[in-house]
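ok so for the tutorial part 2 we go from a plain amino acid sequence to predicted structure tokens. step 1 is just haveing the sequence, like this:
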Amino acid sequence: MKTVLVVDDEPQIVRALRINLRVREYQVYTAATGAEALKQASRHPPDLVILDLGLPDLEGVEVIEGLRGWTAAPIIVLSGRADAVGKVEALDAGADDYVTKPFSMEELLARMRAVGRRAIAEGDKPRFRLGDLVVDLAAKRVFREARQDGAPHGADIRLTPTEWHLLEVLLRHPGKLLGQQYLLREVWGRGYGDAAGNLRLYMAQLRRKLEPDPARPRWLLTEPGMGYRFQPDPDDGEAAGRR
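step 2 — the prediction. this is what the tokens look like for a chain of 243 residues:
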């Protein structure tokens, strides 16, 4: 049985989530404040956290940072905010996904299943398929697979060290929306928070090298105002996901 921590100060939402999750055999703990959430998480380590950003005592980002200090459990943010700023900050702090209020229970459950699959998959697959391209992270190679008619694969596609680093970060988080600040920090390091132009440039270069139609990317997607996402093909046995 998986343990879920629900953090929200709206009693109706907490009640609805508790009922729906317990019916599906989740062990549910709840908290109405950020401080209480951190205490509950330490007493009952969660397998997944559902977190409202608008808490009465702490910002949701502070709770995420507190959790990320010791647990890698997936965190799904609930947000009633119309602007993207809070969502981006939450993703950069370590949240795995977000759902905007009001939301349907079916959507939330689907997001829970998706982050659960990613948590199992991340770090376990040194090879990924992009159509007929194979990305071998261990060997740092991108090559076109030999065709069924016996034709050999083409020459390796050369990537620069920075392109490799960016691609690896994206591929290690299949299906997850990664904020711009997170990617800049992971690939270029601290001090590059204002270098969004670098990120756009290298994403464009990766698309030109890896996407069949760079203008309409299939795998390396942009979420306007938010960040970027590696979206595997749904029938890819090595890294399942959806476009």
